[in-house]
Amino acid sequence: MLHPSYTDLMKVVNSEVEHGEQPVVNSRYSIVIATAKRARQIIHGAEPLIEVESKKPLSIAIEELYESKVKIVGDE
Question: How far apart are CA 21 and CA 34, in angstroms?
C-alpha cells in the first residue's frame, strides 16, 4: 500500500489553491504522472530535495510531493 494515499497527495497539492480557482490536480492520474516525472529526474541524477530512508526514486518523489518540496504546474 502506498503511503501517503492518492487522496492525501491531492489534498496537499491543491491546498494552496484559493477558493473558486481550478484545482491543480483533478485525478489520481495527474498525481501518478507528476511523481513518475520527478522519479525519472532523480534516476537521471537530480538531487533529492528531502532526506529519506528509502533509496527508491518513486518513494523519494512521493515524499517530496507530500512535503510540498515539489510543485505541480499545469499546462496553462
Answer: 20
- Convert the pLDDT of each residue in 42-57 to its tens digit: 999 999 999 878 789 9
Domain segments of the chain as ranges: 6-15+24-66
Decide if 34 contacts 55 (C-beta within 8 A).
no
| 13 Cβ contact list (under 8 Å, min separation 6) | 24, 25, 31, 34, 65, 72
Q: How many CB atoms lie within 10 A of CB 71?
A: 10
Judged against a pLDDT cut of 80, whether residue 32 lies above it is answered with yes
What backbone phi and psi angles, to 5 degrees, belong to 24?
Answer: -65, -40
Measured distance CA(52)–CA(13) in Å, rounded? 20
Q: Which three cell numbers stand for residue 25?
A: 490536480
pTM of the model: 0.80
